[in-house]
Each structure stands twice: as C-alpha cells, then as structure tokens.
Amino acid sequence: MKRCSAITLGAVSVGVLATVAVWTRQRRTTASRISQTRSARNSQLLKLSATSSARWARHQARRRFANAGRQAELDEAFQMQTARDVTEALGNLKGAFMKLGQMASYLDFGLPEAARDTLGELQRDAPPMSAELAASVIVEQLGARPEELFDTWDEAPIASASIGQVHRAITHDGRAVAVKVQYPGVAEAVGSDLANSDVVFGVLKMAFGGLETGPIIEELRARLTEELDYELEARNQQYFANYYEGHPTIRIPSVVPELSSAQVLTSELAVGARFEDVVQWSQAQRDLAAETMYRFTFGSIYQLGAFNGDPHPGNYLFEPDGVVTFLDFGLVKRYDSAETELFGTLIRKMVVDEDIAGFRSYAVTAGLIPADAPQSNDEIQAYFSHFYSFVMDEQPFRLTEEYAAAGVRQIFDTSSEHAELMKLLNIPPAFVITQRINLGLMSLFGRLNASADWRALSEELWPWSDGPASTPMGHAAMAWRKRHSEVAD
Q1: So what's the pLDDT on residue 408?
Q2: Which letter does DSSP use for residue 196 in this model?
Q3: With 50 as the cut, is the pLDDT of residue 369 above it?
Q4: Predicted confidence (pLDDT) per residue in 264-279, tens digit
Q5: Most confident stretch, 8-17, 41-50, 164-173
Q6: β-strand partners of 334
Q7: Beta bridge partners of 179
Q8: From CA 400, how far away is CA 382, in angstroms rounded?
Q9: Is 219 helix (H, G, I), strand (E, B) or coil?
Q10: Minimal CA–CA distance to 210: which of 418, 471, 440, 1?
C-alpha cells in the first residue's frame, strides 16, 4: 500500500473507532454501570472524539514541516497513540460498539503492526462480571443458584465478550456444558449505542455520498437487538446444529433448552485449539481449517439460507484434521430466496459468464450502484472484480493478508483510483451483514495464508453448478449430504 493511502485509511479507521468509544478504562461490573444513560455515554463519546481530533490537528501541523523520514515516524507515533486510546476506551465496553471495535481489531486498516497488535487486545476476553453477579442473573432467569442447577459450576468464566460471558459446568446427568450468561443492563447499553449510531454513519456518509444510512442502521439495529435474545440465539444455534449433524468437519454444539432462557444459554461444551494457536500450525493444517470455514459459510448461505455473521477469531475451535466447531449464533442473518438468487446472479454474471453489462444491471437493481453512475463497464469491473477474484479461475489461489487488506481498502480507501465510483456506492440491507465475509472472514483467511482451489470448492456449494467433489473433505461432505438428503426424504 502506498504510504499516503495507508495514512488516509489508518486515520479514517481510528477516527471511526474513536467516535464509537463510549466507556472509560475504570470498570465497575454492575448493572447500573453497564446501562449508562445516553447523555453519559454521549459525553464520553464526545470527549474521546475531541481528543482524537485535537491530536490529528497537531499531527498534521508537525508533519507539514518534517522531511519524508520524519513524517513516517510521526505517522506511526500518531497511529500508535490513537490505537492505544481506542483500545483503552473499548476494552471494557459492553454493548454494540465493542463489537464494532472487535471487528476493526482483526482487520488490516493500513496501520503499523504495533498499532494493530494494540488494537488486537480487543480480541481477547473482556474483563468479566463478578461471580455473584453472574449467579444473580441465573437465579432471576432459571429460578435457582447455579450450584443447585448444576452438579458442578465453575465460577471463573472461560470467556467474556461484549454482551455476555461463558462458564463451564456439568449437569446433574453428567453432561459437560458451556453456560453463557448475559450481562445485566447490557440491553439498555446496546439501546443507547444504537441510538448513537447516527454519529458513526454520519462520518461514513461524508466519505461515501451514495450511502443510504437509514436502511443500514435499521438492519444493524434489527440484528444486534436479536443478539440480545438468547432464546432466539438458541433457536438459531439448534437450526445450524440440526442441519450439520454428522458432518465430517463442521461441528455445532447442541443447545440444552431446559437450562436456557432469554438471558442464559446452555449448550454442549466444545473443546479445541484457539485461532491464535492455529496460525502456528503447519500450512496443510491451516488450509484444512480454512476449507471447513469456507464450506460452512457459503454452504450455509446457499443450502440453509442463513449466515452466521460474526466471523470473530474467538468464535471458532479447531482440530488439526480440519474439524472446526462454530460458536456464537447471536448474529444470524436469514435470507429469502430472492436474496440468495440475487447473490447467485451477481456471481454468475461476474465470474461464470463474464457479462459485465449484466452484472451492472443487477447491481443497479440491487441498489449497489445508481442507474445513472457515469463510470464505464470496464471501471465497474475493475472495482468489483476484486471481491470475486479468488473464484475467477479454476486453480489454487492463496488468500494472503495483503489480499484481505486490499479488500478493506477497496471498501474504505476513498483516496484510491476508484474514489469517484466509491462515492456513489450503497450497501443494501441484504448486504450489510454479508459484508462481514469481505471484512472479517477474508481477514482470518489472510492470517492463515490459506490456499485452495476456491472456484472448485464454490462449484460444489453453488446450487446452480452442482460441481463434483474437489478435495478429500469434499468427497466426505458429499457422502454426508447424500445421507442427509435421504434422511430428510
């Protein structure tokens, strides 16, 4: 990436993050602290935003009188300090905006590696609520203390995140389970965060003139509000678990409904290696992990009409033979047949038929670009083809960190050669959560340096192509699919 592009994108990314940071470092794990008033959260939001803006102005002034070498040093120092500020503010946040911060933390926004490592702290477990507070939620939701409901209860959580934390337990009939407990007051905090979403999208609207922020905000509000409902999450999780039962490499923990409620979700305890461990494995093992993740993501969209829209590194557990357990089904997008058909048509026009005029026509119909966009078909192809390039040819393609970073720039870097087209682009509701593939999933594949014949894998999964099995995993998956269809019939 050119230095100027890196600086522009880095400044935009940390600036957007600064506008969504609404808590301070001091944490008090009480319901009243989590559900701060909107005015209090706004006050902290404005304080951090003002600090970031003032530092940016000082940085620009210093940079103006420095030589090229000194400018690079100043740029890195500015980005490091801003990353520290954002991490400090978001690190203890409970609610919608911590999710945005976590997503940003595993994307390459053109920041120096040290700054990315600083933001990477957001991927790690957030400070948990106290054992007694977690127990009080269980009492309220399930009618008894966890020590009574379970034969064994571990007070120390095994994971904690933006909306809830997870405890290990053993049921009275001997099943090892994971119990997710929602933070009390987090629903009010999310409501306040979503009420402030116009601040974030106001920033994006300035950069992307064609962006219709209303439908995007409504889509995010609907999905994030659903994520607070653990009964809905339980249904989503069991929906995936039922479908993928018996799959050779995809594992979904089953829900324990009698020990679940609107704010407590109990499911089978899953074990495996974390993502940060997997990046140290052999390339062959990383490729197998990526193949399973790919099959799950796109197989679910086309066969199940659903997308688990939170590709966070903490939502996977891995085994060396390609088995992946998928966790956290709070952010699930269901698609109707018209939406999946639209996705398929865009792929066919760009990848299979190489019909750019047809692609453009459907992109206009979908609301991605305006009908009167002055760009030529060649310019449309030059911009959008990046998102399809890894499936354009029937040959192995390595998804590197550079490729993932280029995808982020393709979406956010308004200093690029596609700047004029980008100003006109819009994100229709059906694409809002799905965009997490380009932002989150590809970033994880880049970390894995994953290689595969993605076109051949896709043709196995695309409902219109009915391609043959292309890998040993593919043969096993096809045998499973055949058994699955026979049982369904």
Answers
A1: 84
A2: T
A3: yes
A4: 999 999 999 999 999 9
A5: 164-173
A6: 306
A7: 167, 266
A8: 20
A9: helix
A10: 418
CA angle in degrees (0–180, nearest 5) for 55-61-63: 100
Q: Which DSSP state fits 467? A: P
The predicted model scores a pTM of: 0.78
Q: How many CA atoms within 13 Å lie on the side-chain side of 217? A: 17
Least Cα distance to 292 among 271, 305, 278 occurs for 278
Give the DSSP H or E segment for 214.
helix 213-227
Give the least confident one: 272-281, 409-418, 451-460. Answer: 409-418
- Domain ranges (residues) in the chain: 3-123, 189-224, 244-251+272-489
Burial letters 304-330, b for 16+ CB under 10 A, else e: bebbbbbbbbbbbbbbeebbbbbbbbb
What is the distance of C-alpha 354 from the center of its chain? Answer: 30
Contacts made by residues 362-368, CB under 8 angstroms, sequence distance 24+: 366/342, 366/428, 366/430, 366/431, 367/212, 367/426, 367/428, 368/425, 368/426, 368/427, 368/428, 368/431
The bridge status of strand 324-326 relative to strand 250-251 is: parallel
Confidence bin at 24 (pLDDT 50/70/90): very low
The pLDDT assigned to 202 comes to 58
User: 3-state DSSP call for residue 170?
Assistant: strand
**Unique residue bearing structure tokens 């369904």:** 488
User: pLDDT for 161-183, tens place per residue?
Assistant: 778 899 999 999 999 999 999 98
| pLDDT for the residue 2 | 41
Distant-in-sequence, close-in-space partners of 184: CB < 8 Å, separation ≥ 6: 31, 34, 129, 133, 136, 137
Looking at the chain, the number of H-run helices and the number of E-run strands are 24, 12
Query: pLDDT digits over 372-384, tens only?
Result: 999 999 999 999 9
Nearest to 35 by CA among 225, 191, 262, 236: 191
Specify which residues 181 forms β-bridges with. Answer: 165, 264
Structure token pair of residue 449: 């340096």
- E strands within 125-260? 152-153, 159-160, 164-170, 176-182, 250-251
